[in-house]
Here is the input.
Amino acid sequence: MARGRLSYLWQKLEEGWGKLRRFYLVHYREDYVQGQVRWRQGACRRCGSCCRIMFRCPHLITENQCSIYYCRYKQCKAFPIDDRDLKYLRHTCGFSFLRPKEARFTQRAS
Ligand code: SF4
Here is the structure.
């Protein structure tokens, strides 16, 4: 029981850190964010899972509909920036990232 509560708290802490990290990256490390797009594959399924990281976003009006979608925050547009963002969403998010080995193979093949 205590262990489950601790892991829940740890997840929330990591999610909070992820929010800060993404905020920093989209505002101060645009080069990194743009570079990561190369390794990203897949597409958004509009599942809304990224709108519930740490807490439910107040702009979420229905199950997965954003009330400010067309002027949403930079960090929302850029999600997921890298593989760390998918730690808790690997099975729900439609995006994934090529690992360095796969990326090298893809580069050689193209
Ligand atoms: S978690 Fe991934 S698939 Fe779901 S809405 Fe966010 S970006 Fe799209």
Residues 44-50, 79, 89, 92-95 surround iron/sulfur cluster (CB under 6 Å). The beta strands are 40-42, 95-97. Helices lie at 2-28, 30-37, 74-77, 100-109. Residues 2-109 form one domain.
